[in-house]
Structures
1.
Amino acid sequence: MTLPALLLLVQDAPAPTVVPADTAWMLVATALVLLMTPALGFFYGGLVRSKNSLNTIMMSYVALGIVGILWALGAYSLAFSDGGPLIGTLTNALLAGVGVEAKGTIPHVLFMAYQGTFAIITAALISGAIVERMRFGPYIAFIALWGILVYAPVAHWVWGGGWLGKLGVLDFAGGTVVHINAGVSALVAAAVLGARKDYGRQAILPHNVPFVLLGAGLLWFGWFGFNGGSALAANASAATAFTNTFLAPMATMVVWALLDAIRTRHVTAVGGATGIVVGLVAITPAAGFVSPVGAILLGAIAAFPSYFMIVWRSRTRLDDSLDVFAGHGIGGLSGALLTGVFALKAWGGTDGVIGGNPAQLGIQAIGAGASFVYAGVMTFVILKALGLVMQLRSETRAEGVGMDVTEHGEEAYTSGEGSILVIPSESAPMQVPAGSGLPATATR
Amino acid sequence: MKLIIAIIRPDRLNDVLEALYRAEVRGLTVSRVMGHGGETERVENYRGTTVKMGLQEKVRLEIGVSEPFVKITVQAILASARTGSVGDGKVFVVDVEQVHRIRTGERDEAAVTPPIPEPV
């Protein structure tokens, strides 16, 4: 059952009650989706150079803090409280009225937490486009504003009772809200920030490919909560979404490996990890609307646009460093449109092209296009506005030294050789009483 | 015949390699080393532990060259490794008594002259 449909149902039903089975599944699903953000950190962290690995992983982790808190304080209300077609209201700000009473069939607080995990990972996804050069403070400011000004409205449009949901756009778990939204924002952010100083001049290689594979594997695991949980209940729809989340990335990975083998004569590990993520992205909007065979076809087809986008993008001056646009923007777009092709009423969706309703493809395109334009324009505006009051990029020297040391004062891989322990009481200059015959300050 | 030893910043390595390539200096050895060049010590924090990093990561290049290449090589390194801040590194030029090329047994000047690459 789609979320908008469920909300309508809630409005019709006078006294919704909390169903224990649904609650149990959604508790687990919320934890699964939360795990995806650390997983993304490792996926991204492995793809960058070692001198930027902590900074890159922290860009994901910090979203757990800042975006999660802002979600509870106000963004949740803007996204999910009843409001106009464009945005909700602040009636649930500071979690007012978000208690243990049923929202659908689960406690309202759990619904809020579950949706919060989506806001967090969506903001974190963007970081892949601007790693190794964006300063950490401005990044935090950016994802904070982005969560409120971009994520919350688009979530409202599709899931919160807004105009795209009413139009009949099918987005089971966030192909539009999460992936197109983040992918386009990443593209714009990469263009606004500009390329890394070494981009196109020297090889910038992943420093830890096992991290990339581990991250992709954990993303897949978490994605069962992301898609399966988007049924908001422990029901047949959840099972469909779960199974499709199981199948589609398999198909994408196989096609990706074949494309890799044809192009480079090798099946690559980074390619395998990327293929899994692209498959997960593509099945997201379709998960609870297509048949398992449809999911396999969807996953297989979705490999092509993203694969060739990555190949093409890396030959341009556009330094979307970890190909967030190719993976999530293009993957999300493929998924959104293919949902309009493969969706079937019998599997929980509105019939798409193969069900004899080609109009659904047009509705999907409107949803994707609206999100595309809004996210792109707003990201540009937010970054330009922040650029007026702070410097977004680190200095070239700092970029050379690496963001771990310059932004965090830490190193990912240090032996500690040659480091001198600073004892706090000894580090401060000792105050010497006047007239003691010693210099005004002395270090013990 | 000299051995040129250069200690440089890791983030300048690619520029130095490029400069050496353009200067047609072939054949070198690179190692990661730790060192201290009088720069301000970086402070790092790990929970309650504050440390000054007394040693910085550096890269050491070792290049055996014939006399005509000494100046070219040194100039290439100086121009490409410099940032202007303390800690840019040093270039040492050291006299070499003998050089042997292991593969052919060639000695001295012949041993530091790059071989013509064999067709693959």
2.
Amino acid sequence: MSEKEKIEFKAGRELPFSVPNGYFDNLPAKIQARIQAEASASETVTENGGWAVTFRSQLAFAAGFAFMAVIAYFGYYLSRPVSQHNSRHVGTDYVEIVSRSISDFEDIDLYRAIENRKKQDTINEATREMYHRYYIRSNNCITIIDEKKEIQP
Amino acid sequence: MRKYQERLYWHIRKIVISHDDTDDVIQNTFLKVWGGLESFREDSQLFTWLYRIATNEALTFLKKKKTKFLLPLVDVEQQLCKTLESDPHIDGDELQIKLQQAILKLPEKQRIVFNMKYYDEMKYEDMSDVLGTSVGALKASFHHAVKKIEKFLEED
């Protein structure tokens, strides 16, 4: 006995579905129109952006790689240790311990600390000066002229 | 196209239920067929190949619907049941509608196997080609589907 003969529900094998009148007559034309639309659309893509479509995955990969490289560079730039030479330009908060305990604090210590600080600033200012050295060659000698230039902080 | 369109239409319709959705899926199916004719192997039966594309397109359509509306699987089945009540192109008797409701309660794979065997009267060997499942597994699926449908109809 086959499977078909064994199984038969009371509902039979008729489906309770219908289609609009003339649907199957019009279906091939609809499909034909879709196929033509798809074909012309793909031709347009090939004409206008063929290489972009062909290399789309490679372009996406390159763009992603470039983005990651930029992020990595900025991450490195922001987290790198600040060198001793540039420390004055970074604007780090400055703390100087004048006295270890309040009981032995003397006004004179504070005064000295301020004076030392001023001296240090003066030295630092001095390093901002630059000399341009000129060499003037004459018959038997060379004259050296140093011109001082100020660098604005 | 004319030779196969009706059989493919009814196969898809049994999966997606609504006429409008079936219309979309069958057009997509023929577009895929048109695009893949070069890859069609002569050794595989044309109709089996068409059936496979149509089945995949119908299942993809349901998956997209589920993703689009963020619906769990159960809700998709409920939606299909509602379509049975509201679609203007449903005109069967009460028993036929009841049988469709019972079929919609089945898991997706069992539903397709049952439809192909019961309504389309396909051979298990052909179904195996279409679905890529062994004949034994298909027979088991059909058997389970029939039992579940019988139970549903008895309970109701």
